DNA sequence: CTGAAAGCGCTTACAG
DNA sequence: CTGAAAGCGCTTACAG
């Protein structure tokens, strides 16, 4: 059974298909009664305009492409929820693609986006670099990068304010009385790691605390990396009394490693994360962390895209503040340390 | 700058656009040399066929619509990853929509899917009922339900085998020596809850253990509900020594409530979850649970859809077995209880 | 206010 | 093997 087209409605209403088109799109040219009548008929026959046919002539698809490394990453999922939510408000649809950090797959994604003529693209926390962004930009559609690791001057972006958020988190530990504070970063070379490290250092400097290179270890953004990094720190002759982690996943691994050593968080060692993923409040102990407003950032990315599509001169780079959430993984250091 | 069309390529290659179309689609009618030449030109000029134009004539879009309640739900995210992964293999794109369990939004989603002429639809763990499924079925495209709460006879589905998985989980507790085993369900009226409860009862019956209604409490699928339910159970004159929970979220809340009472898991009370979400291995203690192969189920749902599209008579209802993952939240009951 | 016509970018019988 | 023609379902100047 074929879906009914504008012509079927035209026949039913005894008008031309042009009139139907106008009536349905709310043109003021058509007499109100005719509009009413046509709308009724269209409604009754369950008519749905073909997006494909429309976009063929308007050359807009009301579709945006969203690339994430993996939607199973809770950060990405929250962001995508925000994006889709906002897109829904503007009657846009989102085509979701996982790059899985595989170059071949990324190429296919771009191709698919091009063939589907998406009106814009949002890339979330891509770890792949300038090459990919370059490739995306060849689609000639507006692109918004969200927490991208390789910001490009030409691209628009929404990013968490890593520096000030990390500084706040480190400052929290300093205020509690910690002096030996470690930083467990992500893999080398990713910008947000550099920035978060920068905030950590800035807080240390402002408190006139010495920077000790042995207190800076690199993880890999996941619990395993965090655990390994924490073990390195715990083997130090002079253990840190607090660890600021690149993200919650890292912190989770660090807490596990600490517990495995028979030490306790926060009485022996304080731990701070970054992101405020869902499980942060359910870890043992509940994790003190920096909250990224993930959904709002997703919304913001979509709004930026919409402004770009409306040729509205929009701010090219938006920085979003993080919020320190103090839970129970941080406490003053022990007296005798 | 307009994207180049098939006509542009035709001009460049000195052939008709029909020939370009055939060459690009791999028609055997065209001479190999011509195909080569045209492909080269198309490649060089970065030509991308318009999916919209193509689907207008073929009346297929190579697009599937996926509805989830919320992509921020880790279960849905894993499933969607599996779906998109499999879709990518067949050159299909997925349009993602969050229903947010809001009826108005669901209506809009169906509408969007209809206008975009998706070739098929996958609905994941919808809590909304028969009405919605009915509405979806009016799109006249194949639909696959994944862990849907209101299975419809006419629909195809992939579901976890709730009954046998729950029976296995309960049996595990019985084998450990537990006799007073509670079940914390989801809200009333959802099918998977009924089935999981069924598995629990079946295991009890098989072991000749008495069924005690006061040991069955309802949560709401999230930690808050699990915590409240656990508190109810802990206030019972004769506390259960083990709790089987509808899902991991519920178990998380239950464990928190148990800890809040100063009791310990598993030495005082054993807890079992369902799903094996990421955090299950990172809870304290790591959670014994039933693993649902979420990604594989997503893949399976897409494969089922593809078979349906190929008019291949496919099995209408697929049941996937769950796997019991024993971690550290279960142990034999205390001697003296 | 309404209609006839052209055209968006493809695919695919129909001829040759 | 290749081309001219029709048509998919819309929108939108152009006439009236």
Textual characterization of the structure:
2 copies of one chain form a homodimer. Chain A is an alpha/beta fold and 337 residues long. The first copy, chain A, is built from 12 helices and 12 strands. Chain A has helices at residues 6-13, 17-24, 32-44, 51-58, 74-89, 103-115, 130-137, 162-176, 191-206, 223-234, 248-260, 294-309, and strands at 63-68, 93-98, 120-124, 143-146, 156-160, 181-185, 216-218, 242-245, 270-272, 289-291, 317-320, 323-325. Chain A has a 6-stranded parallel beta sheet with strand order 2-1-3-4-5-11, sandwiched between helices. The first copy, chain A, has a 4-stranded parallel beta sheet with strand order 7-6-8-9, sandwiched between helices. In chain A, strands 10-12 form a two-stranded antiparallel ribbon. In chain A, strand 3, helix 7 (130-137) and strand 4 (143-146) form a beta-alpha-beta unit. The longest helix of chain A has 16 residues, at 74-89. The mean pLDDT of chain A is 92. At the A-B interface, helix 4, helix 5, strand 2, helix 6 and helix 11 of A face helix 4, helix 5, strand 2, helix 6 and helix 11 of B. The first copy, chain A, binds a DNA duplex (16 and 16 nucleotides) through residues 5-7, 15-19, 21-22, 25, 29-31, 34, 49-50, 52-59.
